[in-house]
Amino acid sequence: MSGTDSIELLAAVRQFLRQEVLPELSGFKAYNARVAANALSIVARELEMGAGLVQLDRQIASALGLEEKAGAVEQQIALGLRDGTMVHAGEILAYLRQRTLLACAIDNPKYSGLQQARARWIQ
Amino acid sequence: MAEAGLKDMADRLLAALLATEQNAADDGVSIEGLKRLSGGANMETWSFDWVCNSATEPLILRRLPGSAGGLDHPVGELTLEAEAALLDVAGYNGVCVPAVRLVLRAEHGLGEGYIMSRERGEALPFRLLADDFYRGARERLAYQCGQALGRIHAIPLNLLPPSLSDHSGGRLFVRAQELLDTHGNRSPVLQLGLNWLRDTPRQNPQCTLVHGDFRNGNLLVDQDGLVAVLDWELAHLGDPIQDLGYICANVWRFGYPKPVGGFGDYADLLAGYASVTDVAPAMADIHYWQVHAALSWGMVCLIMLEMYRSGQDSSLERAAVGRRLSEAEIDLLLLMEGDS
To answer: Which class does domain B3-117 fall in?
Structure first.
């Protein structure tokens, strides 16, 4: 791809929303414009970091012998935990921590819980 | 809403309120400043003034327009009529709540809902947490919240609307598991949270009225502190400590460090509660219900996502909240390690 890349397009639209649209709005519409700009930031971060989620899912699927055709990795683990065929320990716990850290870093990097979790789980 | 629609609505409000006045002349009454405040796709909140014989009464209309039926709030528990009845009971029992002015009937042509007093104060968490104007309020608020919760939990069960649902004992787990199952079991962490709640032993919890959504954002506050407790649609019967854990959930601190709603300390909340109830809840019980509050927030995210995907409510806000699941997950993982 040689044209403007996706991250750049998202940044341009976000800047348009924040600098040109938002000042024209008030109340609930202004709030929604901020939510919209923030949603674009999430997409941009997912484009940059989302491969890490796929990688974590592949690793745990391989470690636990999960099969792709049985459904999404997270769902298979959720059902395993529900039915007691999997336990919250060892590699599953490590996977859940890592995955949640990364997902939250994509979704809301300023979230206070993320800072706490980083301090505790990342040595 | 177009001007004509707004005028029609004001006319209907005027007729509904005029019928409640003993000595009002038709030419001495009006509806002023009618405007929509917020709400979901269906549930509406409106602000207006009722002017009658040159007295002005600030009011709020909360309604589902059109015919009665399904609730807008995805995890709503009560009909609006039952919610109005509950506000009355809470008010009589010393809880600071808006006064219900009129419960809508079919002949009013305004849908299902009720009209209540519009109280002074601010409910927006960021103003409350950041503005110097609320500095004094912030110091008192945790204690006042404890008092208000103590009064809510002391209301005799036989006074409550019969339609309140019962979440006590194992019912809570059954409902939560059903919800996770119907939303595709997409979060192992929410499942873990539910397992933890189910497997953690509890000592003889009480069963009382539980507000269910008692948090920063649903409290009207002025510079002296708590003015009114709002948003009762999640009220139910259950363990009263649920409300105390809920207001201490990380998500409702809005990024501020203080554990109670971002503004207060546990000790003040518990002291206010004990001043009314003579009950001193254990921190372990608060912690238990903080885990539940994080799970609940995660479940709300799942519900919002489903509302968006199904087209039931295709608003940006719904789509965005659906994406906040990872906040609930990170809180759950931290809480299950033993933090508050």
So the answer is: alpha beta
Residue A58 is predicted with a pLDDT of 94
Contact between B57 and B330 (Cβ < 8 Å) = no
Taking only the tens place, the pLDDT of each residue in A52-64 is 999 999 999 999 9
Cβ atoms of B280 and B270 closer than 8 Å? yes
CA dihedral sign, ordered A46, B313, B261, B326: negative
Asked whether residue A1 is assigned to any structural domain, the reply reads: no
- AA identity, residue B175: R
Provide the shortest C-alpha distance from residue B158 to chain A (in Å).
Answer: 37
Phi and psi dihedrals of B152, rounded to 5? -60, -45
Host domain of residue A71: 6-121
Put simply, whether A41 touches B (Cβ < 8 Å) is: no
Instruction: Write out chain B residues lying below 8 Å of A38, CB-based.
Output: 320
Note the pTM of the prediction, 2 decimals.
0.92
Asked if B320 lies within 8 A of A77 by C-beta distance, the reply is no
Q: Give residue-wise pLDDT tens across range B94-141.
A: 999 999 999 999 999 999 999 999 999 989 899 999 999 999 999 999
Structure tokens at B157: 């069960």
| Nearest Cα residue to B14 out of B28, B4, B2, B1 | B28
d(CA B293, CA B21): 44
Longest dimension (CA), chain A: 55
DSSP per residue over B253-318, as a string?
GTT-SBTBTBTB-HHHHHHHHHHHHS----HHHHHHHHHHHHHHHHHHHHHHHHHHHHTS---HHH
Instruction: Return the amino acid letter for A9.
Output: L
- Rounded alpha-carbon distances, angstroms, from residue A89 to A74, A86, B15, B238, B285: 15, 9, 64, 31, 24
**Domain B125-336, CATH homologous superfamily name and number:** Aminoglycoside phosphotransferase (APH), C-terminal lobe (3.90.1200.10)
